[in-house]
Amino acid sequence: MRENVHILFILILITLSSISFAQKSSSAKSTIYQTETNILYYSIEQAKEDDYLNERCRLDLYYPKNRSGYPTVVWFHGDGLKAG
């Protein structure tokens, strides 16, 4: 019984001490993002022929201002993407 209390105490001590080694968030800089919305990703000629393309086939871009070489995430939302 006494040995279990010692083991529990050691585990709690290890857990709490590991928190002190966590990464500090104070070094994170706030980033200003540029936004471009409703960009058509088909040609204008194709979009004029099809109302669905004109209304739905658009994207929004969010990217950091005054910065290059940043990682990119492409995120398709919805159930319309079946292949490709």
Radius of gyration: 25 Å
Q: Describe the biggest sheet?
A: 2 strands, antiparallel
Helix content: 25-40%
Count of DSSP helices?
3
In order across it, which strands form the biggest sheet?
A: 1-2
SSE succession: HEHHE
Could you give the count of β-strands? 2
Strand content: 15-25%
**End-to-end C-alpha gap:** 61 Å
| Mean pLDDT across residues | 82
Low-pLDDT segments: none
How would you sum up this structure, described in words?
This protein is an alpha+beta fold and 84 residues long. The protein has a domain of 46 residues. The chain is 36% helix and 18% strand. The chain contains 3 helices and 2 strands. The protein has a two-stranded antiparallel sheet. The mean pLDDT is 82.
